Amino acid sequence: MKRINSLESIPENIDMLTGIDLIGNIKNLFKNPVQMPGCLFLLCIRGNCTITIHLNKYELKKNTIAIIFPHQFVQIMDESKDCRFIFVGFSQKLVQSPPMFSRMIEYTPSIFEEPVIELSPEAAGIFYEYFKVLIKAMRLQDTFIRNEQAYLICSQLILGLGNIYKQREGSERPRYNRNQEIVKELIRIVIQNYKQERNISFYAEKMHLSPQHLSTTIKKTTGKTLTDIISTFVIRDAQAKLRSTELTIQEIAYSLNFPDISFFGKYFKRYTGMSPKQYRNME
């Protein structure tokens, strides 16, 4: 793997980055807590270490994979001398695009709750071989894989891991503190209800908390307001429908429970800076 001195040194115009860590550079890259600028799939192929992802500690060993979302803080410590990884990373712009949002929304709560999972040797072998194929293809520069194909590759990884998460449903989950549990429960409820409900009181009632307590906890734990979290799901859903469907703007407004197209347009422009029509027609 070509040495990367810091995450900030990665060019912003790269949608996908992949490599195999033969020199221990990954450990040095995450020796101190750093915030992920994109989404990282990190497969341990040898040795072991402790990895901290957004305040929680996990053990990474051979055949375990970590999925790290944008903005999550990551640190690798207590690593063995032979600890090595193979990885694929995607830009924040790509993983937060409307089409990818539609792909990931079903699995986001599970990945957020359990970002490190142990794979069977057979499954780990498939991911390992697939990552190696991507490394070889990336070395051919634009002759085999172009940036626009990164979306499809990321989708394959999410869907493949999503099937593994589904098979693990009902298994024992890691423990979290009360505030983290509230955030995880909120995300689940928002995913189920954001198309119909944007009222803070609705979510507070669902969680048997006061609106003030819920709002304060969410802000303290995530750095975002509850309204920010709800609107993120609403806006990305709207963007996905505007770009990837032939639904009229009015139909999209009604699908997200807006009373009329005017109210939807004002809401959309407040968070994106443009009207739904401008977004749909944007190059």
Descriptive notes:
This protein has two domains: 7-167, Jelly Rolls; 178-281, Arc Repressor Mutant, subunit A (Orthogonal Bundle). The longest helix has 19 residues, at 121-139. It starts with 15 loop residues before the first strand and ends with a helix. A hairpin with a 2-residue loop joins strand 4 and strand 5. It is of the alpha+beta class and 283 residues long. The mean pLDDT is 84. The chain has 13 helices and nine strands. Helix 3 packs parallel to helix 6 (150-167), helix 7 packs across helix 9 and helix 8 (200-206) crosses helix 9 (211-222). Strands 1-8-3-6-9 form a five-stranded antiparallel sheet. A four-stranded antiparallel sheet has the order 2-7-4-5, with no helix packed on it.
Keywords:
283 residues, 13 helices, four-stranded antiparallel beta sheet, globular, five-stranded antiparallel beta sheet, Arc Repressor Mutant, subunit A, alpha+beta, 9 strands, single chain, 2 domains
Summarize the topology.
Blueprint: E1 16-20, H1 25-29, E2 34-35, E3 38-46, E4 48-53, E5 56-61, E6 64-68, E7 73-77, E8 84-91, H2 92-95, H3 98-104, H4 108-113, E9 116-118, H5 121-139, H6 150-167, H7 178-193, H8 200-206, H9 211-222, H10 226-244, H11 249-255, H12 261-272, H13 276-281
Helix pairs in contact: 3-6, 3-10, 7-9, 8-9
- SS-based structural class? alpha+beta
Please give the share of residues in helix.
Answer: 40-55%
Q: What is the 3D shape?
A: globular
Q: What's the total helix number?
A: 13
The strand count comes to 9
- Roughly what is the average pLDDT, rounded to an integer? 84
Q: Summarize the biggest pleated sheet.
A: 5 strands, antiparallel
Classified in CATH, the superfamily of the largest domain is Regulatory protein AraC
Strand order of the largest sheet: 1-8-3-6-9
What's the CATH class label of the largest domain? Answer: Mainly Beta
CATH architecture of the largest domain: Sandwich
**Are there runs of 5+ residues with pLDDT below 50, and where?**
none
Give the termini separation. Answer: 35 Å
Structural domain count: 2
CATH topology of the largest domain: Jelly Rolls
What is the N-to-C succession of helices and strands?
Answer: EHEEEEEEEHHHEHHHHHHHHH
* Proportion of strand residues: 15-25%
Q: Which radius of gyration do the C-alpha atoms yield? A: 20 Å
